[in-house]
Amino acid sequence: METYLKRSKNSQEKESFLYKDLLSPSILYIILLISIPLGLGMVRSRTFATFHAYIIPALGLMFLFARSPAPSIYILSYIMSSHVLWRMTKARVLWEYSKYAGILLAFLIIVRYIKRVKNFILPLFFLFFLSLSIPLTLNYYGDFSVIRRELSFNLSGPLVFSISVLLFSNIKLKTKQIAFNFLMILSPIVSTATISLYTLLTHTVIFTTTSNPLASGRFGPNQVSAVLGLGALIALLIGINYIETILSRILIFATGAWLFIQSVLTFSRGGPLNFILSSMVLFWYLLRNKKTRLRVTGGILFLLAIFIILLPRLEKLTQGKLEERFTSLNTTGRTEIALAELELFKTHPLFGVGPGVGIAERSNLLGYFVASHTEYTRLPAEHGLWGIFALVILLYLLYIPVRYSKSFKQKSQNASLIMWSLFEMAHSATRIAITTYLPGITYLQPEEMDEEG
Predict the structure, then answer these.
(1) Three-class secondary structure of residue 104 per DSSP
(2) For 115-170, what is each residue's pLDDT tens digit?
């Protein structure tokens, strides 16, 4: 018995050592600094990028043997945030690999650590309603490879949402573990920003009034801009809610400012607008609280100073194209796509045209093939009335973490993350894994007794 007690005590001391200083300045600096050469290595070597894409999920599986779910959750968040990174570095993996690997790991975490799963009814109904139109897709496309591709592209995002809500509504972590989890989301975004900056500096870039692939690491500006804007928001959340030291806070705010500016330079408007709207929601909540008002005011002033100093220089760098691009009201075809989807819903109101069939049916209305950009019109078009039911469940599940948050800080954090996802789904659907993973994280509650930090 005495030996057992000593082992138990030693185990607790080790766990305390591992988790109590997760956001210490040294850890923060190391993780952010490692992310920079990691990104450069991945963009210069496809083999290294592929190795990275396989070793990260393998680490997640290895950590399933740990007593705490925290390490596996860190890897899960890193995987979901690496979706764009693995694509832009051309890692030899499936196109939706990040979603597949994340879904598998989340499922295994549930099996390993949750004895009695609760809060599963609404996520399952959400998926059930979306599955009712699958037979239409099977009937429309005769080629199995096309069926697999279309179903994966359109349903993997909702599946990520359901399993992440299921996981995080059944688990708790220490406050600093939650903060470190945000740092794991930020890390691959820093690698993505490094690649974008490297490409920008090593090529002659001519800015126009359209999005700029060179400033996006030779990958889709829309998706790169989105994750860079998210990185700026995550950095802001970490700096305001979790970091106490002045130097570390300056570092994380400066990182956020860099990511925002990099997002602006892609000339894809979604990422910067996502950040502005979600940060406005964050500030609106935090400025109402006396305890956070001073800290938030300092953060706002810091960001304003960055923008006042740098934005005129960016305008000069882009030869005046920056203002022209971001003041344009042109939706680059998104309005027409959304209207076409509403027209499809009118003609197929019960079951829609089937998930993935919309791209083919819209071509008859628009005269060209284009993927959906707005999840709120795609669901009715491809799933009909059942898609509307699924949309209602989705919005209600997004409302719960804000309405029932236990603390003011958590409410502001959840509201800003959900705003980011809502706006991203409005102009880019659920293309990247992090879009539907973030709402699940808002269900993650901190432990009430967190003496170790």
Answers:
(1) helix
(2) 999 999 999 999 999 999 999 999 999 888 999 999 999 999 999 999 999 999 99
Identify whether the C-beta of residue 68 lies closer than 8 Å to the C-beta of residue 15: yes
Residues in the chain: 453
Cite the beta strand spans of 148-274 per DSSP E: 172-173
Distance, in Å, from the CA atom of 232 to the CA atom of 259, rounded to the nearest integer, reads: 5
pLDDT (tens digit, 9 = 90+) per residue, 213-228? 888 999 999 999 999 9
Instruction: Tell me if the pTM is above 0.85.
Output: yes
Q: In the chain, where are the structural domains located?
A: 23-444
- Determine the Cα–Cα distance for residues 54 and 212; give it in Å rounded to an integer: 30
For 196-219, what is the mean pLDDT?
88
Gap between the Cα atoms of 170 and 69, Å rounded:
12
Return d(Cα 448, Cα 174) in angstroms, integer: 8
Place of tokens 């829309």: 222
Give CA–CA dist 429/370, Å, rounded.
13
- The pLDDT of residue 440 is above 50: yes
Instruction: Write out the H or E segment, with its range, that includes residue 261.
Output: helix 246-265
What's the CA gap between 64 and 55, in Å, rounded? 15
DSSP line for 136-160: HHHHH---HHHHHHHHHHHHHHHHH
Two tokens, residue 4 = 């057992």
User: Do the Cβ atoms of 374 and 337 come closer than 8 Å?
Assistant: yes
